[in-house]
Amino acid sequence: MRYRYLRFPGGKTKTVTFSYDDGLQTDVRLCKILEKYGCKGTFNINSLWLAQDENGYNITKEQLNTVILAGGHEVAVHGAQHVAPGNARTVDALVDALQCRRELERMTGRIIRGMAYPDSGITVMNNGTSYPRIKSYLTDLDISYARSLAADNDRFRLPEDWHNWIPTAHHDNPNILQWAKRFAEMDIDSFYAPDRYPRLFYIWGHTYEFERRSNWDHIEELCRIFSARDDIWFATNMEIYEYVKAYEALQYNVDNTLAYNPTNQTIWLDSDGKVYAIAPGTTVAMK
């Protein structure tokens, strides 16, 4: 065995996910667009803003369940009061994240473990805090991943640090259509062996931006580019996290001829160009 790579469900080589912040009424329209094209998204909610909304600007508790979750999307933490952890005292940012998680769980009846950093997130540090400290308390709060920002790139890589998950691009990045088309057309299996690792395209933003710019057709064009392909897995942020962690839990013998799956989901992998599907609790022989 020279190279072994994760493959997404169905043996697919690529995955696409969307992440939208603040929990706004315009999120409802985006949910319907994503579903139209078979895409999935994560919606990061400010729980206190939702609870105290008097103008009908924010999404409602009912819509969290009947629109977002019912559409196969994810609800995630964005801070009860939208506090950037890098700019706050540790205790204040910790409480903001914990309060948001608790309130969202009570509203949805779900376990909420994902997050997107509000405002400047972890890109600016003040009040004696640091990224290691933030990562430590988020881990203690059972926040499995947290999306960062301000580093758009076209590397299409899975995150190296789940608490500093850098997205591919904001939807208004001037390069995004070019990058999306290149990503969609990539034939990973035809690459030289060291480059056949899985690829991720991660789009983020705020749905009010489409309303302000009157360019809802922009997100539809992106969805069309991706949905035309049959080698892309559309997933929420949490689905990607959980699948990668399950892949990393696979166990192998010394000779790399056997793979055992101790998890509760089927995991796909590529071993030297041959794709294997390993069902839960089973061992597969690899040639």
Could you explain the architecture of this structure?
- The protein has 287 residues and is of the alpha/beta class.
- The protein has helices spanning 26-36, 47-52, 61-69, 90-108, 131-140, 176-185, 208-213, 216-227, 237-248; strands spanning 4-7, 14-22, 41-45, 74-77, 169-170, 199-205, 232-234, 251-252, 258-260, 267-271, 274-278, 283-285.
- The strands form 3 sheets. Strands 2, 3, 4, 5, 6 and 7 form a 6-stranded parallel β-sheet that branches. Strands 1-10-11 form a 3-stranded antiparallel β-sheet.
- A hairpin with a 5-residue loop joins strand 8 (251-252) and strand 9.
- Helix 6 (176-185) runs parallel beside helix 8 (216-227).
- The radius of gyration is 19 Å and the shape is globular.
- The chain starts with a strand and ends with a strand.
- The mean pLDDT is 96.
User: What proportion strand?
Assistant: 15-25%
Task: Name the overall outline.
Answer: globular
Low-pLDDT runs: none
N-to-C series of helices and strands: EEHEHHEHHEHEHHEHEEEEE
Please identify the structural class as seen in this structure.
alpha/beta
Q: Nutshell version of this structure?
A:
By secondary structure, this protein is α/β, with parallel strands linked by helices. It is built from nine helices and twelve strands. Helices cover about 35% and strands about 20% of the residues.
Keyphrases for this structure?
287 residues; alpha/beta; six-stranded parallel beta sheet; three-stranded antiparallel beta sheet; 9 helices
